[in-house]
Amino acid sequence: MSPIRMDAGGGLAVTTGVDVGPALETLLAEDIPARLAAADATLWGPDAAEEAAIRLGWLDTFERSRALLPVVTRLRADLAEAGIHRVVLAGMGGSSLAPEVICRTLDVPLTVLDTTDPEQITRALNDQLAETVVVVSSKSGGTVETESLRRAWVQAFTDSGVSSVGRHFVVVTDPGSPLEQLGTAMGAHVILADPDVGGRYSALTAFGLVPAALAGVDVEELIDEAAAFAETMAAAPPENPAVLLGAALASRPTVAITEDGTGIVGLGDWAEQLIAESTGKDGKGVLPVVVESPTAPGATAPGVLSVSVGGATSHAAAGSRLDQPDVSVNGPLGAQFLCWELATAYAGRLLAIDPFNQPNVAESKDNTKQILDSGVPSEEAVFVEGPVSGYGVEAANLPDAITEMLSSVGTDGYLTVMAYLDREDDARLAELRRLLAERIEAPVTFGWGPRFLHSTGQFHKGGRPTGVFVQITADSAEDLEVPGRPYGFAGLQAAQAAGDRQALRDRGRPLLWLRLTDRAEGIDRVLSAAKEDGS
Ligand SMILES: O=P(O)(O)OC[C@H]1O[C@](O)(CO)[C@@H](O)[C@@H]1O
């Protein structure tokens, strides 16, 4: 079939050679684009309507976000005058992924802390403290990772004797959240976000824009790009690329997202959360896999929709590295955010799920709380191979254990690596995804814990029940106190990993736990074992 291309205002185009005809016809016959543009909360069925009624603010939030521009400009100038120029963002999932992609794409430095790893946090705390502002971002104001980080930073500033601790904090939260009160009490600059927008749809609200603007991004451009794109949001094809992307997303069980090398960096991690948390529920959903390059293993396979993203409007003309993805989405970042949000909402309609709830995220959180009180349950290692101890599968050694997990992946199955480590210093472990994906046809995903708990974690527990899991944790050389709490970050991280193991095992999912007693040597051992076929 010859490719279909749809262009919107704002210079965004979606092109696909996949036959999405029936899905497209369904959406158009029921007038879904116009109804979604008009914020019709009934589109996902009666059970979803109540939540949808308070979650569709993202359709035009970017216009309300213009009011933030003078606020952040003044705040940035005040901070600069006080010699504060390094921006650290403490937040999880939707409260950190958008600023990260914005700053990576525009090459503006921003330190994102969406972790409980004591080594990563200690390193961030020990760097240019006096010149640092910490943006504490949490919609609910109650996320344990973010609150623990806030406490650690307050302690660090207090210990360093800076003259005004509150001046080193900007709080972004929903009106009325516990964090609003805390932020005010500590003398932070508090910025309230649009409450009618859920976390993963919040890229163009204060959550996405404030940290990026403080770091030095001209966020008005992003708003303008989204506004230009929105002009064709209710249009019929060929002027509505989001409807084409939504129809394509709902057409395959897995979407492999890659960059085409024409300018957008890291959108895959943001889209991964959007798609996984929005669709991975009720035993179904679209599994997002962020692949390293257009030619990486898993980028194309049966059942996989390959999608390339790029900044240029014509990927072919702009020298794309991907010859024929199933779908290409090309256009500026502000328009990309809105296009993917709309597409996910369309896919939700086609898959008959509620794209605005995350019913299974709480499970691992609840388990973590219990384990923090009672301690991590002890388990017997099935093998100890130097710096790597293995638990949970019958295998004599590490290569056999890995082979066993790969062969447990069935039809429609997938394998997930969940690494509770330092995603900066231990970054080379991410190569494991590629090494394992080379050995099986099925999708292989990789996530850093606890960050993935706020993204693909929903899919693992609520999506199609065919996942096979490899969890990797490490002992830390030193713990870091969570001030005012009876546990440290290492204890919290271990409890989060144990809580998620429990949630997955309670559902009968195969899970291999690898515990590294020495990080560097353990990572080397795991990577080399992944290359060995144990048979
Ligand atoms: O902004 P908050 O409330 O801290 O939540 C962070 C993330 O946690 C989740 O609520 C659930 O994982 C995400 O949807 C959200 O982006």
Automatic annotation (TrEMBL):
GO terms for cellular component: cytosol. It comes from the Bacteria. Keywords: Gluconeogenesis, Glycolysis, Isomerase. Gene3D superfamilies: Glucose-6-phosphate isomerase like protein, domain 1. It holds the Pfam family PGI. The keyword Repressor does not apply. One of its GO terms (biological process) is glucose 6-phosphate metabolic process. GO terms for molecular function: carbohydrate derivative binding; glucose-6-phosphate isomerase activity; monosaccharide binding. The keyword Repeat does not apply. This is Glucose-6-phosphate isomerase.
